[in-house]
């Protein structure tokens, strides 16, 4: 799929366990003047002091924050009073505030500002973070108190939200090894520290290949077919690297995909394609294959220690799918019709190639190029004709408008807010009916060295109602390529869809209305968290958005109706390709983690498994194993990449609730959706929340119809 909503299992748990609350009664820290630790000051409950952060602050901040956090835990375990919700669970919710603030900065710098200097800090701190996390999880006195509250009769008299929070703590501790004996705990801690170090190496290797590799174009004729915006971006990249009279195609999806779509130079298409799909797989210092083997072995051992058959069974135990078998069943149901559709798509492309006199067999570096030709022939739709209407700033305004119509949000730019890079812009979000401020939204749209590729959402601060409450603070991060200075950035249809998708995650966070920070949106099961984002994509192509915000960057005129009609007719176009390239990655992920402790050669396993699945030769996995950051940069989406398909079943079904009512902007349905999905966070089982919104469980029919596949019988 299009995006990365990724948080490592370690950091996710720590973030929920030690979420920040309104600053009060914090354990003093030794480095109280360190900007990474100080309580945030200013409006909106305080703003992160990004402008004061230096690399020298990180390690001292870690030392001080972890010490203060452990002191908070000691206060809880030293109590003589019997464990209850307030003195144990609530106390944990309010512990470790400096550490929570530190984590925000660590995540931001690791994903957005990861230069060679910070990589040394990251390499040192990641295993130490794992050890720190284990030190808390393996605190026998602490877990005994949590277990007492969880098993007490008094639990039944707590509010549903308090019961859910208690369940969350108990389950997370159990899944993290709190019930193991001392020998097993020590081994588990060793495994977690080794994994943390391997995750960091894997990420840094992929980032190095993306930063350091590019294809140089020195002849103007080799730019044939490319849109001007991509040419300008390639020239800007060359200028950044101080290279003259050349154009550089970066090793990131935002550069590679449009190049493969429009370049008429087949030899260069293959060269760019191979550069991109071999990230982390070049047999050099950045090769990730041995790292993957080690990660899989360690995960399998950890799962057995925790009493699970495989890592996949461990990871799905508290997800909506519950078991790997249910996830596999869904993927296999969609796989066969998707592959069948690919055969039709390839035949159409091959026919065009032959008609044009190209004596070739469609290869992976041809797929996007000839798919675009089929699009032009069948629908008379040229993406280069559409792109002048897709201005990044206007599309952002369009998603603001849709959020206002659906959920009553308004967005006002904030000019004097500290940011970690000049590219970052900030908005205040309000409820337009009450005028109440509901949160702060950060936007970091452009690619640069040290920033990982892709698009994602982060939560900088959790929403909650404790101690007077705290506003949510969220961000969207993308990798659009800048063009000429002063000119609008033009994006593709797919890019605009991604923009709306990631903003769906942000809206989930901004809509959160919970009491306890650990339960805030979008801190829900990974196979449910993608539902709001995938649903939000569907508002991009509504007439209300396109007619008002898809404006030509030179004339200012709205996109013509006939062009919009062509776009809508292509909604299931190329669905075989998009489904297979994603689903191949999801199936490899799940199958790898169902192998248990079998020693895996990643390249061989990928090749043989795809052959057995009947993978079309004309397509490669969207994320090949050596660059699969979702599953090898942390634990968060491991054995969980299926989540995008699982969530898309739900989102397709949910959108029919709007279309069956008064249309995409039906207020009654959007209010019900906000009430039962967006605002409730993890206060309720997601299956129950969806049923309250929809009146029933989701059905797969809507997804199969949207993708143009045969409906299940």
UniProtKB/TrEMBL annotation:
Per its UniProt record, the required cofactor names are:
Zn(2+)
Q: Does Transmembrane count among this protein's keywords? A: no
Checking InterPro entries in the record gives: M3A_DCP (IPR034005), MetalloPept_cat_dom_sf (IPR024079), Neurolysin/TOP_dom2 (IPR024077), Pept_M3A_M3B (IPR045090), Pept_M3A_M3B_dom (IPR001567)
Tell me the Pfam families matching this sequence: Peptidase_M3 (PF01432)
Question: Keyword annotations for this protein?
Answer: Hydrolase, Metal-binding, Metalloprotease, Protease, Signal, Zinc
Superkingdom is Bacteria
* Sample GO molecular function, one term: carboxypeptidase activity
Q: Does the keyword Protease apply?
A: yes
Q: Tell me the Gene Ontology biological-process terms attached to this UniProt entry.
A: proteolysis
* Any coiled-coil regions, as ranges: none
Q: How does the cofactor bind to this protein, according to its record?
A: Binds 1 zinc ion.
Peptidase M3A/M3B catalytic domain: from which residue to which, for each copy? 260-705
Q: Which PROSITE patterns match?
A: PROKAR_LIPOPROTEIN (PS51257)
Region forming the signal peptide: 1-21
Supply one GO CC term from the record: cytosol
Q: Which family does it belong to?
A: Belongs to the peptidase M3 family.
This protein is called what?
M3 family peptidase
């Amino acid at each position: 799929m299009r995006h990365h909503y990724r948080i490592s299992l370690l950091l996710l748990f720590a973030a929920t366990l030690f979420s920040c609350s309104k600053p009060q009664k914090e354990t003093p820290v030794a480095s109280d003047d360190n900007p990474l630790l100080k309580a945030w000051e200013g409006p909106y409950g305080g703003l992160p002091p990004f402008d004061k952060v230096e690399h020298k602050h990180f390690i001292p901040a870690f030392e001080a924050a972890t010490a203060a956090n452990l002191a908070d835990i000691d206060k809880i375990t030293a109590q003589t009073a019997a464990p209850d919700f307030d003195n144990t669970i609530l106390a944990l919710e309010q512990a470790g505030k400096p550490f929570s603030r530190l984590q925000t900065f660590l995540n931001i710098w690791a994903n957005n500002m990861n230069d060679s200097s910070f990589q040394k800090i990251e390499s040192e701190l990641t295993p130490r973070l794992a050890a720190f996390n284990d030190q808390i999880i393996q605190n026998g006195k602490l877990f005994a108190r949590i277990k007492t509250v969880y098993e007490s009769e008094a639990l039944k008299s707590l509010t549903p939200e308090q019961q859910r929070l208690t369940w969350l703590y108990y389950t997370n501790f159990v899944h993290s090894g709190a019930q193991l004996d001392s020998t097993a705990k020590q081994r588990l801690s060793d495994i977690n520290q080794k994994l943390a170090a391997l995750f960091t190496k894997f990420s840094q290797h992929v980032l190095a290949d993306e930063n350091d590799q590019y294809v140089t174009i020195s002849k103007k004729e080799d730019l044939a077919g490319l849109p001007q915006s991509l040419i300008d971006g390639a020239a800007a990249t060359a200028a950044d690297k101080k290279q003259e009279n050349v154009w550089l195609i970066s090793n990131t999806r935002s550069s590679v995909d449009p190049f493969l779509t429009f370049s008429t130079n087949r030899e260069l298409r293959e060269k760019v394609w191979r550069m991109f799909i071999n990230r982390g797989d070049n047999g050099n210092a950045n090769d990730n294959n041995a790292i993957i083997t080690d990660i899989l072995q360690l995960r399998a051992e950890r799962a057995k220690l925790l009493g699970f058959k495989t890592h996949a069974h461990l990871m799905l135990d508290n997800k909506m799918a519950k078991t790997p078998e249910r996830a596999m069943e869904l993927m296999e149901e969609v796989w066969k019709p998707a592959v069948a559709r690919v055969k039709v798509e390839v035949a159409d492309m091959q026919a065009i190639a032959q008609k044009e006199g190209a004596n070739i067999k469609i290869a992976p570096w041809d797929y996007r190029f000839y798919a675009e030709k089929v699009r032009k022939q069948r629908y008379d739709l040229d993406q280069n004709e559409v792109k002048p209407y897709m201005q990044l700033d206007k599309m952002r305004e369009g998603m603001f408008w849709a959020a206002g119509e659906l959920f009553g949000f308004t967005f006002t730019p904030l000019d004097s807010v500290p940011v970690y890079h000049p590219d970052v812009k900030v908005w205040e979000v309000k409820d337009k009916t009450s005028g109440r401020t509901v949160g702060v939204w950060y936007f970091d749209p452009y690619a640069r060295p040290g920033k990982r590729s892709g698009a994602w959402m982060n939560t900088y601060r959790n929403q909650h109602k404790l101690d007077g409450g705290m506003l949510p603070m969220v961000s969207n991060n993308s990798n659009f390529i800048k063009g000429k200075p002063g000119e609008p950035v033009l994006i593709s249809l797919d890019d605009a869809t991604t923009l709306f998708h990631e903003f769906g995650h942000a809206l989930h966070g901004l809509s959160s209305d919970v009491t306890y920070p650990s339960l805030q949106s979008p801190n829900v099961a990974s196979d449910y968290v993608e539902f709001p984002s995938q649903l939000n994509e569907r508002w991009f192509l509504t007439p209300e958005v396109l007619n008002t915000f898809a404006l030509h960057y030179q004339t200012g005129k709205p996109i013509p109706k006939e062009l919009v009609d062509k776009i809508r007719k292509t909604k299931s176009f190329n669905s075989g390709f998009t489904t297979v390239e994603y689903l191949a990655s999801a199936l490899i992920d799940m199958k790898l983690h169902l192998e248990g402790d079998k020693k895996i050669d990643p390249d061989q396993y990928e090749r043989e498994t795809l052959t057995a699945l009947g993978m079309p030769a004309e397509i490669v996995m969207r994320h090949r194993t050596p660059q699969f950051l979702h599953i090898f940069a942390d634990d968060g989406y491991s054995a969980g990449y299926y989540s995008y398909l699982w969530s898309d079943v739900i989102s397709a079904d949910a959108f029919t609730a709007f279309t069956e009512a008064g249309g995409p902007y039906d207020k009654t349905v959007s209010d019900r959706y906000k009430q039962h999905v967006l605002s409730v966070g993890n206060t309720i089982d997601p299956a129950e929340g969806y049923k309250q919104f929809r009146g029933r469980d989701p059905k797969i029919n809507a997804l199969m119809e949207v993708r143009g596949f045969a409906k299940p019988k």
